[in-house]
Specification:
Blueprint lengths: L13 E12 L4 E7 L11 E6 L2 E7 L8 E7 L4 H9 L5 E8 L11 E6 L3 H14 L5 E7 L8 H10 L3 E7 L9 E2 L2 H8 L7 E7 H13 L7 E6 L2
Parallel strand pairs: 7-8, 7-11, 8-9, 9-10, 11-12
Antiparallel strand pairs: 1-2, 1-6, 2-5, 3-4, 3-6
Helix pairs in contact: 4-5
Length: 240
């Protein structure tokens, strides 16, 4: 077992000249990009990096893998403009890019408390990293993932999370569709009412939530109503 993430990362961000290893489109408007920074990954699970290119201001993107791996993984949603559009049009395997990392306080805390991960859209990226850290260091503690997306095609890691349920009996994965197709097997609706249905209390949980601001604004009151403790709540909001 490697050292725990929170003991092995730099306290200030550094700039890395990186090389794109792969860029794979997985949900129409979403791409998984992996980059090699030439050294071990410098972050805590759940933190983010700044990606930049000539002519564009650096933009934050969550790192989607735990720090035990040498590469950095990003889930990029194409907004059709700015840096994200540039990435889709120009970055491919072999491209040279600039990465500054790490940033952010939304990272996994080593704990045996039950873990609740709440993702909206590509907010799954930092929570994937947090779950990887949890399974590596606290795999016998209960863990729950609620992932809300617009439609089934955006559940681009669905099979991976279902496979994790077979490996870790203490893990429960709940996908939620906002716009389900007829006959879709997934639950419909949003995270806040789903939590109210599934939990009597969230006291004693470490809760990580990542997604658009509207999703956080709708979910945080539900967490408070279920007794979530402020010192165990870690959130990361972004646009889109």
């Amino acid at each position: 077992m490697t050292a725990r993430p929170e003991t092995t990362v730099p306290t200030t961000p550094r700039t890395y000249d990186a090389t794109v290893i792969s860029a794979v489109d997985i949900a129409g408007d979403t791409r998984i990009l992996r980059a090699d920074i030439g050294t071990t990954s410098p972050h805590r699970a759940g933190q983010y990096a700044h990606l930049s290119a000539d002519g564009f201001e650096p933009r934050p993107f969550s790192i989607a893998n735990a720090p035990d791996k040498g590469l950095l993984e990003f889930h990029i949603k194409n907004t059709g403009r700015g840096l994200s559009a540039h990435i889709f049009e120009n970055w491919k395997a072999g491209s040279k890019i600039t990465i500054e990392a790490p940033f952010g306080d939304h990272y996994w805390r080593a704990s045996s408390r039950p873990l609740l991960a709440l993702a909206g859209g590509v907010g799954i990226a930092p929570l994937k990293a947090i779950l990887e850290a949890h399974f590596a260091y606290a795999q016998h503690s209960p863990a729950y993932l609620y992932w809300g997306v617009r439609d089934a095609q955006h559940l681009y890691l669905d099979s991976a999370f279902r496979a994790l349920q077979e490996i870790y009996p203490e893990f429960r994965y709940v996908p939620l569709l906002g716009e389900p197709a007829a006959g879709a097997p997934q639950r419909t609706g949003y995270i806040a009412p789903a939590l109210a249905e599934d939990f009597r209390t969230l006291a004693g949980h470490n809760i990580y939530i990542a997604g658009p601001a509207a999703m956080l604004n709708a979910t945080l009151p539900a967490l408070d109503a279920l007794g979530a403790e402020k010192d165990g709540l870690f959130s990361d909001s972004f646009g889109g």
